[in-house]
Amino acid sequence: MAQNTRDAYRTVIRMTGAALPVVSFLGRLPVAMIQFGSVLLVTETSGSLATGGIVACALALGQVSLGPFVGRLADRHGQRAVVLVLSLVNAVAIAAYTLGALADLPTPGLVALGALAGATIPGIGPLARARVVPLVRAKGGDDRLASTVLSLESTMDELSFVLGPALVGLAAVAGHPAYAFGAAALLVAVCGTAFALHPTGRTPKADTSGPARARGARPPLPRSVYVVRAGLLFLGVLLGACGAGITALTEELGRPGQAGLVYAAMGVMSAVVGLSMAALPERFGLIARWRVATAAAALLSLPLVWTDSLAGLYVVVTFFGAIYAPNLITGFALTERAVPPQRLAEGMTFAASAFVGGQAVTLAVAGRLAESHGAGAAFALGSVAAAVAFVIALIARHEPHRPDPVDPARQEPHRHQPSRAGVTPDVAAP
Fold it and tell me: What is the predicted pLDDT for the residue at 430?
């Protein structure tokens, strides 16, 4: 099985080219750096964890607000121009945000700059999924190979959320978190441009012409997509609460520079588990995976509430990190199987935005909660969110597939056969 898994990853990289995963990974790294680093940067310059949480919330809400719109533009006009413009604009926005924090601007000014930095994020992670999965399928890849793509993409996300906070933490220990923000601006400008100009960026746009669709019309989304987004939203709440709790606990222990490294330890375990997801048997369906992953999140988050030492935090967080990749990979896989191909980039960016949106609201709430009641209160909020995500997964059900009766010749075969991963695709008829 291990050999088959390695072969699947080699096949995916052979189809995309070795350069694409590299620039894709480096291009999404700044997102992790500024999302986590915003709390440290603003807390460092303002002296208030609550202010850091509010500004980080504004940054995340900016990303959530325009993320689906970025995906919609990419669906309509192709990824190349969209990513190219946003990469350059985002680099300038990150630099402006950093200078504003260093200049100790009032909170409303920082909120505006943070929202701008978030709103201009080019969305390389979800757009890479929307680019590579159709590419692999067009070259003969099946559901298992598509799942391998999603495992690889989620692992790169996790590695970015390992290295990003680690770089911010090292910058904080070495001198100031702002150093990491300067590196983030440079990375998004260079690697975002490289991602946009990669040959796969010329992948044809989804064809929405033809008798089945009016010009500019978009096929509706199935109900199951919204259920998955709700689950990802509460997973984001869990991650946001954990981030606030980790920051608060390391400050309580007098080791604030350790926050990024603790977060990185959680991401290492998540990345390892993410890579192994491609080895799961096909009979272990996506709905079952989702339920198991959310149940594990609820259970493994509980020890965080009573953790009160740095060593204990490292141990508990490392085990807890095993739950993130399975939840994200499964959520994106359910989304990819269900959304119409004309809306794949939008569907992927919306799924990512649901996850980030949960983080955004929680960063503000959990930061104040941790200041008033300690780190345990923030961790407890995360445990409640994990329990809600489990309930959503437990009561979720997939609907029978309803094919498009108007233009069957245009349907994609893989979307109209029972998935070998265990879920019947659920695409609403127009």
Answer: 28
Residue 117: what pLDDT?
A: 94
Distance CA 311, CA 338 (A): 43
Range of 197-206, 340-349, 376-385 with top mean pLDDT: 376-385
DSSP 264-313: HHHHHHHHHHHHHGGGS-TTS-HHHHHHHHHHHHHHHHHHHHT--SHHHH
Residue 170 has pLDDT above 70, yes or no: yes
Q: Which residues contact 355 (CB under 8 A, 6 or more apart)?
A: 232, 233, 235, 236, 239, 328, 331
Which one, of 348, 6, 359, lies nearest residue 150 by Cα?
348
Going by pLDDT thresholds of 50, 70 and 90, the confidence category of residue 22 is very high
Q: How far, in Å, CA of 164 to CA of 367, rounded?
A: 20
- At residue 9's C-alpha, the angle toward residues 235 and 264, to 5°, is 40
What's 341's DSSP letter?
A: G
Are 354 and 346 contacting, i.e. CB atoms less than 8 angstroms apart?
no
Tell me: pLDDT of 152 over 70.
yes
pLDDT at 182: 92
Domains of the chain, CATH where assigned? 2-203+220-401+412-416 (1.20.1250.20)
- Determine the Cα–Cα distance for residues 266 and 303; give it in Å rounded to an integer: 14
- d(C-alpha 148, C-alpha 128), whole Å: 13
Distance CA 317, CA 243 (A): 11
CA distance 41 to 135: 39
